[in-house]
Amino acid sequence: MSHVMDTYARLPVAFERGEGSWLWDANGKRYLDAMSGVAVCGLGHGHPKYVAALRDQVGRLVHTSNLYRITLQEKLAERLAAISGMENVFFCNSGCEANEAAIKLARLYGHKKNVEAPAIVVLEKAFHGRTIATLSATGSRKVQAGFEPLLAGFVRVPFDDLDAVRRVAEGNRSVVAVLVELLQGEGGVNVCHEGYLRGLREICDAHDWLLMLDEVQSGMGRTGKWFAFQHSGVMPDVMPLAKGLGNGVPIGACLAAGPAAHLFKPGNHGSTFGGNPLACAAALATIDIIEEERLMENAVKTGDFIRAELARQIGGLKGVREIRGKGLMIGIELEHPCGELVQQALDRGMLINVTVDHVIRLLPPLNFKTEEAGLLLATLVPLVTQFLDRQAASQAAAQTA
Ligand code: PLP
Questions:
Q1: How many beta carbons lie within 10 A of that of residue 397, not counting itself?
Q2: What pLDDT shows up at residue 291?
Q3: Engineering a disulfide at 188: which of 43, 230, 356, 367 sits with its beta carbon 3.0 to 4.6 angstroms away?
Q4: Residue nearest atom 5 of ligand 1, based on CA coordinates
Q5: Pocket test for ligand 1, best of 100, 123, 128, 179 (most atoms within 8 A of CB)
Q6: b/e map of 371-385 (b: 16 or more CB within 10 Å)?
Q7: Which pLDDT belongs to residue 87?
Q8: 0.70 surpassed by pTM
Q9: Ligand 1 nearest atom to the CA of residue 243, by list position
Q10: Is the model's pLDDT at 1 over the cut of 80?
Q11: What is the pLDDT of residues 226-280, one digit of tens each?
C-alpha cells in the first residue's frame, strides 16, 4: 500500500533520469517528454549550465530567511522587472501562492478605495490553483466540488467575452479587479481573440480595476515571448508566475506595477521559503539560458511547425474540432473524450496530456528540436487517427444496432 495520498490518478511509470527532452524509467525505457512536467522544465532535463548553477548554489547557500536581505532575490526581482516592464515582485513557491498574493493585493486595493467587500471578475474554465481562494477563483466545478463553502468575492463571466465584463462593470460596484489567463491551460488551451486584452485594459482603466494576468502556465517563454501579454503590447497591473520560472526548483512570483506595486507593507504577506537563494539561483540561470539560447524563437518556430503539421495531417479529419495554441502551448480538441490516448502514448514512449477530457495538450521543452517534433508527430498522428477510426466504427455500429 502506498503511503502517498491519493490526489492524482498517476500513470504506472516512474522516471529515474532525464536529458534534454528525454526521460528514462527504471527499466531503461526512454520517453519523449512533450509535457515538461506540465510547463515547468522549459530547458528540458539536466541542462549543463543550469545544473552547474544549482550545484554551485547548493554548496554556497540554500536558505536563509526573508528576515534578512537576499541578494539573489533582489537580483532576480530586478531581472523580472526588466523582462516584464513590471515594478516589483513578491516571491513564493508555487502558482497558487502567486495567485493568492494577487487576490490579497486586489482586496487591499479595494479596501483602500473603501469598497467593503471587494470582488474579482474571473472566467469560466479558468484554473488558478487548489488552495481555497484559488479553487474558488477557478472555473471548474470538478476542482471545487467537496470543498464548499467557497470563498466569496468572485464574479464569473464566460471566457473571451468583453461584453460580459462590461455588464459586470455596470452593475457591480464591489468589483476591484479582473484575474484572467490569456491562454487558458488546464481549461483546454483556450486562446482569446486579438483585441481581448486591450478591451480588458480599457474596462479596468475606466473603472479603476486592477488587471491581473495569471501567467503561471503561459509565462517564461512558453508562448514565444517572456509573457503572453507581450504579444499585445498591453500592460497588466499584477502578474502571478511560477512553473517555468525555476525550471523545476519550486518558485512562484507575483509581479506588480502602478497602483498595485506598493500595497503590501511589512506584515501584510510572507512566505518562509519564498525567493530563497537556491530558488532564485535556479530562476536566474533559467532566464539567462532562455535568453542566451534564443529559446523563445525556438518556441515560436517549433510550435508553429507542430501546429501546421497537425493541421495538415489530421486537421481535416472528422472528429478533430480544432488545433490551437501559441508557441509551445498546443491543444488539439477532439469531439470525444480521449483520455485513453495518454496511456497509449506512454506505451509508445511519449508523454502527452489530455485536459478537460477531450483536448490533447502538448507542452514540450522550449528547446525541443525539430527532429523531436518530427518524432512526436510520427507517434501522435497515428494514435489520433486510430482513435478517430475506433470512434467512427463504434458510432456506425450503434446506428445499425
Ligand atoms: N495558474 C495556472 C494558470 C496554472 O496552470 C496552474 C497550474 O496548473 C496554477 C495557477 C497553479 O499552480 P501550482 O500548481 O503551482 O499551485
A1: 9
A2: 98
A3: 356
A4: 217
A5: 128
A6: ebbebbbebbbebbe
A7: 98
A8: yes
A9: 15
A10: no
A11: 999 999 989 999 999 999 999 999 999 999 999 999 999 999 999 999 999 999 9
- Would you state the cell numbers that stand for residue 391, as one nine-digit string? 470512434
Sign of the dihedral through C-alpha 33, 38, 42, 46: negative
End-to-end CA distance of the chain: 44
CB-hemisphere CA count at 13 Å for 151?
Answer: 21
List of residues 6+ apart from 9 with CB closer than 8 A: none
- What is the pLDDT averaged over residues 274-303? 98
Ligand 1 center to 318 CA (angstroms): 33
Question: Cα 70 from chain centroid?
Answer: 27
Residue 284: pLDDT above 90? yes
- What is the chain's mean pLDDT, rounded? 97
Question: pLDDT per residue over 220-236, tens digit each?
Answer: 999 999 999 999 989 99
For residue 337, say if its preceding peptide bond is cis, omega within 30 degrees of 0. Answer: no
DSSP state of 351: E
Quote the cell numbers at residue 75: 537580483
Task: Report d(CA 345, CA 340) in Å as an integer.
Answer: 9
User: What stretches of 58-188 adopt beta strand conformation (E)?
Assistant: 88-92, 119-123, 154-157, 175-180, 183-184
Does the structure show a pLDDT above 90 at 158? yes
CA distances, 114 to each of 110, 237, 255, 257 (Å) = 6, 19, 24, 21
Q: Which long-range contacts (CB under 8 A, 24 or more apart) does 165-168 make?
A: 165/121, 165/199, 165/200, 165/203, 166/203, 168/121
Ligand 1 pocket test: pick from 35, 140, 190, 217 the residue with the most ligand atoms within 8 Å of its Cβ: 217
3-class DSSP assignment, residue 154: strand
In the block, cell 512536467 appears at 37
Instruction: Quote the CA–CA distance of 104 and 108 in Å, as a whole number.
Output: 6
- Whole-angstrom Cα distance, residue 373 to residue 149? 45
